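Quick one before lunch.
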Amino acid sequence: MSTQPLKDLSTLVSLAKRRGFVFQSSEIYGGLNSCWDYGPLGAQFKLNVKLAWWKAMTRRPDVVGLDAAILMHPMVWKASGHVDGFSDPLVDCKTCKNRFREDHAVKKDGKTQCPRCGSTDTTEARAFNLMFKTHMGPVEDEGNVVYLRPETAQGIFVNFDNVANSMRKKIPFGIAQIGKSFRNEITPGNFTFRTREFEQMEMQYFVKPGTDEGWFETWKQTRWDFYRTLGVTESKLRFHEHKGSELAHYAKAAFDVEYEFPFGWSELEGIHNRSDFDLSQHQKFSGKKLEYFDEATKEKYLPYVIETAVGCDRLALALLCDAYREEESEGDKRVVLGLKPALAPVKAAFLPLSKKQDLQDLALKLFEDFSSSKEVDYDESGSIGKRYRRQDEIGTPLCVTVDFDSLQDQKVTVRHRDLMTQDRVSIDQLKNYVNQKLGEF
Ligand code: GAP
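Model of the glycyl-adenosine-5'-phosphate complex:
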């Protein structure tokens, strides 16, 4: 049997649309650039990705969750540096009127060259702020400007004291959050990789200054292990260290976890040592003391922060790219999404072999028995071979087929997605069997 991984993103984009994972936003109006809607399977899959992250982060004694508002006091973004510093340098080409990022363009004879027409007759770079601006209330003036948050992290920093006090948390401890962020990106693209509206999964871990470098290493390892647990191919993961001008304005040290997408190695997650930058800025701008009092040592200090930040949409894309494979055996082809069962949008599909009412009734009854504890599917349309292929393509680990013998012997056939082996299983043993098999993937 020959196996091929995903070669180009367009193959995945078309599977995602065909099978109800991801659709272009507002498609009937011609679509809205770089905005995507998750279809029925995509919504479930993304929820599974978020749950995997949420469980990994919050099912430990030292990390708690938070769900902060998207709209925040405008001073937050002054303090964080986003109003003054969160911008891309933009250049206009005087020849073809193209507008592009100076830092993504090549230089010719010391001048910035337009990537579209090659002209070097370009304007000076101007800073373009990436935050989306809107107004609070009915009057649109400068006094009521608010921003759609460009990162979830600030909701955590401004709640540091609330969480520490209400949860009686002692340092070191972390706050985890999943939520939407918005950036008016100049060059969105590569499907859901870089979009203007996206979801982030961020965790800020508050530590005593001096212990930050050790915690930074610990979190790097923890995050690497997380991707291994999700089944990501390890040879397609690597760390990339930020040096010099690559470092964000708040970062003392930063590593990206990169994944080898079909379009090349690109950032999946950022792990940053943000020092006490954010807490000290919020302390200064709000006038509220954010120091932590260590009861044991009677010391007062502003904690340092180790941050892990991954885009949920970006991770979902990496997982789909990684799981995709095409198999061919004796002229028979199939596409498989080899997702771990915890991530698969459907865990098991119930398939009556024919449209005979008795078979459909039994398959539906089994579907109903399982649906209270798992995401399951029921499918009666098309040949059984086509139905297996459809389930393979959406990553369903197990297919349960009800055939004519099932009515007599009270047994069903369970087919394994990866091995394509089939077992005959007694209906009264089916729950145990399915749970055990899902655990073995
Ligand atoms: N709080 C730190 C922070 O936001 P970041 O490196 O700018 O750091 C963290 O973003 C992660 O969010 C990235 O590694 C990426 O996975 C995701 N992300 C950032 N911008 C994105 C965009 N325009 N579209 C999709 N995901 C994005």
